[in-house]
Design brief:
The protein is an alpha+beta fold and 382 residues long. It has 19 helices and 14 strands. The protein has helices at 8-18, 30-36, 45-53, 61-69, 92-106, 110-113, 118-131, 139-150, 155-159, 166-171, 190-194, 202-217, 222-229, 233-241, 284-288, 292-295, 301-304, 310-313, 352-369, and strands spanning 4-6, 40-41, 74-78, 84-88, 137-138, 176-181, 184-188, 247-252, 255-260, 276-279, 320-323, 326-336, 339-346, 373-377. The strands form 4 sheets. A 5-stranded mixed β-sheet has the order 10-11-12-13-14, with helices on one face. A hairpin with a 2-residue loop joins β8 and β9 (255-260).
Length: 382
């Protein structure tokens, strides 16, 4: 049999559909949508809320916050690539087990990198779990409680916003984030917050999440997997080899890539009307899809790479205008009296239909945030 070939356009349609961007999911499927896209990066929580709002019809910021802080169906914790994520609560143990496996593959144990003895690491994790037993603590309160048990050496590192000692505790199931206390973050015991905890085999859990990544973001190769889970390329290649019987190799814009064999033989995602979206910074579409030079085309790079966080993180660190799966502009919100201006800087000429779609996107974001939103066009930062 000849190898199946996928065009860039068909791959984009497929990915956008799996991302619930072509047809948003019903409001009742908010958590299922987060599950389908492999979690939502939440370094900036407001951006994570907008990422969910782009994919769940008629949802609001309050719906996301209720899922997090009232219903406990979503959890904020340390996730893939060591960054903060929103993950489905019912799969938190699965995710933490998988990330433990990724950590083992990526280098020395965390306690060695932190210059701790194994006994110190055990004492630290146990002290964190004990401190959070039935309690919600600020970072300082947690540091005070833990250092009283293990010693002052832990205080400064527990107070660090980098989470050097908190991320390992999250992977061990000892903590996750609780609701904010004013401007301060808080932490709770993960098993108590979600009401359960099951042990998963770490390697099996990582293979499962790799399978899901390919289902949503494929066609993918081992370099894509390495980026998503912060692995070395050879480790990602071995991970894909463990799924060899479930994968189909395809030719994708001149390179080898893989889909789940269950997605073959015919790709049902046909190209439709040109569509656009206003996506927030750190959106999972930009984080997970490749190749990078297609997602951020040449027309976008000069401006993206010289503006704001784009200097350091390219388009990933910016709110972007996405047209047919590629970055075609940037946007920002600015308070203007009693309303908020949503300003778009487009890198391409927009059609009349695309102007209509942008107006609809501005209305959607305004409704999601519960604010009056006006659409404007111009150079950002002026």
């Amino acid at each position: 049999m000849s190898m199946r070939s996928l065009t860039w356009e068909s791959a984009c349609q497929r990915r956008l559909a799996r991302q619930h961007l072509l047809v948003p999911a019903p409001a009742a499927q908010l958590v299922e949508t987060v599950r389908a896209i492999g979690g939502v990066q939440a370094q900036v929580l407001s951006a994570a809320e907008l990422a969910i709002g782009a994919r769940v019809a008629d949802s609001t910021r309050q719906d996301v916050r209720a899922a997090l802080w009232e219903q406990h169906t979503l959890v904020k914790t340390y996730g893939p690539r060591g960054t903060l994520h929103l993950l489905p609560a019912d799969e938190l143990p699965l995710w933490m087990a998988a990330l433990q496996a990724a950590e083992v593959l990526s280098g020395p144990p965390w306690y060695q990198r932190a210059s701790l003895a194994p006994s110190q690491a055990d004492d630290l994790l146990n002290a964190i779990g004990a401190a959070l037993d039935g309690r919600c603590l600020t970072r300082k309160e947690l540091a005070d409680a833990v250092t009283s048990q293990v010693g002052e050496w832990a205080r400064e590192r527990l107070l660090s916003a980098w989470g050097e000692l908190l991320a390992p505790a999250a992977l061990a199931g000892k903590l996750c984030f609780g609701p904010g206390s004013g401007t301060q973050v808080t932490f709770v015991r993960a098993d108590q917050w979600i009401g359960h905890w099951e042990q998963h085999d770490p390697k099996t859990a990582l293979v499962e999440l790799c399978r899901r990544y390919i289902a949503t973001y494929g066609p993918a190769n081992h370099q894509d997997i390495a980026h998503w889970f912060r692995l070395k390329p050879e480790q990602a290649r071995a991970l894909m080899e463990s799924l060899a019987t479930e994968l189909e190799e395809v030719e994708f814009i001149g390179r080898r890539a893989w889909l789940l064999a269950s997605d073959a033989p015919d790709d049902p995602h046909e190209a439709g009307e040109s569509a656009l979206w206003l996506l927030p910074q750190y959106d999972c579409y930009l984080l997970g899809c490749g190749p990078r030079e297609r997602i951020v085309p040449e027309v976008a790079r000069p401006r993206v790479n010289t503006y704001g966080r784009g200097r350091f993180e390219s388009a990933t660190g910016l709110p972007v205008l996405l047209i047919d799966g590629a970055v075609a502009g940037m946007w920002e919100r600015r308070k203007q009296g009693k309303t908020t201006e949503l300003r778009v800087e487009s890198f391409v000429d927009l059609t009349a239909r695309q102007h209509e779609q942008l107006a609809a996107e501005a209305d959607r974001i305004g409704a999601f945030l519960g604010i009056n939103m006006t659409l404007a066009f111009g150079i950002l930062g002026t």
